[in-house]
Amino acid sequence: MKDLLVKINAEIETFKTEAESLTEKGIKAAGARARKSTLELEKLLKEFRKVSIEESKK
Questions:
Q1: Which of 19, 30, 43, 48 has the fewest CB atoms within 10 Å, i.e. is most exposed?
Q2: Is the pTM of this model over 0.85?
């Protein structure tokens, strides 16, 4: 579970960086990278939910 949390935090940082590049610097390609990052975050968060439920059943 700790590995999953590390991955989630890294992806959040990636999203923040790309979103900032888009909004503050106007780099359009950063928008695509930020959107891609949100899709990856969605997968990771679903996995976290699954693991969390399994852990709570123990």
A1: 43
A2: yes
